[in-house]
Structures are given as C-alpha cells and as structure tokens.
C-alpha cells in the first residue's frame, strides 16, 4: 500500500549542525501549501537558537500554508466575519432580510466576544461557554441565532483551510425552555377590535385620526393567517371578492433592507408560503373596504399604504398594534399571536394538517409544535366508556 503523505503544514525531523564560522544551523523538510516538500533552514548564534528560530519560521509558514488566500489560522475572527459577509454577498442565495439578520446577529451578539481572537485560538470550549452564557443571561432565541451565524462563519473558515474543524459542531446541545403556545380567545379578539376602533379617536387627540387601516389589517391577519409582512404585501390583483367565499393570494412580503427603501418582495418567507386562501366574511368585508379606497386601477397597487402611497413598514404596524393592545389591557401579544389563533381554531375543527396548509407550513409538526395551543380537554366519550365501572344495584354480587 502507498505510504500516506504527511499533511500540509507539517515538517520532518530537525537536523542541527555547527557551521564553519561557529554559528548554528537547523534544517528540516516542510510540506508546503502546494503539497511539495521543501527544505527550510535557519541560522543563529548557536544550534539551539537556530532550532528555536526554525520552529518560529515553521509555525508562521504552516499558518500560511493552511490558509492560502483571504484567511489563515492567524487571521482574526473579525477578519473572518468580513470575509464571510463578502462571501454571502457573492453567493447571493439569501433574501436581503435574511442577509441583514445574519449580519446584525453576528455584529451584535457574537463579534464582541470573539473579535480579538485569532482563529487558531478559538476552541470548542470557548464557543460552548459563550453559547451557554448567552442562553442563560439573554435568551434561548439569541443563543440559537448566535450559534447559527457562528457555524456558518466557521464553516467558511474550514473550507478556506484556516481551521481544521468547525468548533460549533461539538458544543453541547441547546436545550429549549418549555413554553406553551397561547392563542387569543374570542373575548380577547373583541377587546382588541374595540380598542382599535377607538384608538387615537375622540376629543383632545392631537393630529389626524387613524385612517382605519389597522382595524382592517387585524381582520385580514385573522382571516388569512398571513404574517404581518405578507398581509401588508397584498395587492389588488391578489384579491377576488367576486366569489363566495372571497379569496386572497399570499405571494409576497414587505421588507425594509438596511439603507434601502421599504418595498414589496415578490415572494414570501418560503416557497410553501405562496398560497391562495379562502377567507371568512369579516375578512372579505375588510378587503372590500380597502379596495373601495384605492383610486388607481393598477392591479399591482397595494391595499395597505401610507398617506404618501408608499408601503407600510412592519415596524409601523407593530408599534400601532402595541398601543391598541395596551388600550385593551392585553399583554404578551404580537402579530404572530393572530397566526397562532388561526392555527388553533382550524386544528380544533379540521386537524393539524389543514392548519399547516392554511399557514403555509411544510409540515404539520411545525404547526403543532409552535402554533397550535394544546387542548387539555379529553374526548368526552371517555365518560360513556367508563360507565361500565358504575356500581351495581344492591352492592353487586361479591361472591
């Protein structure tokens, strides 16, 4: 069998000798980045000094051999981040919102902890302790997001031969805290509707009154299960109110890339999220109200727009909704709570598969785990079954 070749960046036995002028010389054969073995030597005042100098030269040369190009083991983590972000842009496979999210998570959550380390100094233990601390002091969600961007960046370093392995792969598993999905009940929904109708209306309110869009956004979220960005991206051409029931096509979302104007992205979160849903009568009524206020015949015209005719931002609606919820005395509710409400109601009547289809999920497991509120009520047929255990008349036959 052929003898395995020594790895790139390794060297053989070091030979020491004394030169005629009395200086020391240390030499060895080094396997370079191109796989070729080359003789490397160093001289100094003594043989031992020459050996130390040679080892320093070899360490530097190994770092260069293992990381040809933009990265090597001596590169700082900050430099890795710059190369990684440039690589993301070169690939161009991410939605702009996802690309911005990755950068934000890296800069805000991860970079402060690792920016001054060289890549060769980052161990599994360092990464493991960082992720555990983040989960404990901040949140599971932040730790999970940090782990994602770390793994992606270190994966690039491995591909560039700047790291031998991805340290994220060997850290302890993140344990998600137990949470229970909560949906809105009918009473809460009515309180939210009343609060939305009265928000910033009445005597003493400074500025123009609300234009009614928030109330209609709520009804469309409840009737379509759409994410807030998907609802704000609905156009005239996506609505059909001439059928019974009316339908809405969910096929885009509103994004606000950093440094760029808010605009409609022509696809939603995932390919499965593109769907046409039949909506209840209260949602159809809200859609008709929006259509009646649009003067343009342009089929691409958004049904929810600012006073200047520009797309509404998701942050704008979230801010208004928080004010409405405060007025209703309801806390802990986000636009996602409406999706959970839709999922729970449909699950109770038609099952988790139908709920997943409505929400645009690829699997009902996702819907059951994150969106459907657990039903604590056991099927009442159990009472009828257990009647067989009822006491018999006169105490029964004990013999």
From TrEMBL:
The protein's name: Site-specific integrase
UniProt superkingdom: Bacteria
Biological source species: Nocardioides hwasunensis
Keyword 4Fe-4S belongs to the record: no
PANTHER family, A to Z: PHAGE INTEGRASE-RELATED
Key words, A-Z: DNA integration, DNA recombination, DNA-binding
Record-linked InterPro entries: CB, DNA_brk_join_enz, Integrase-like_cat_sf, Integrase_catalytic, Integrase_recombinase_N, Integrase_SAM-like_N, Tyrosine_recombinase_XerCD
Region (Disordered): 255-276
Core-binding (CB) domain span: 75-158
Ranges where the Tyr recombinase domain occurs: 177-384
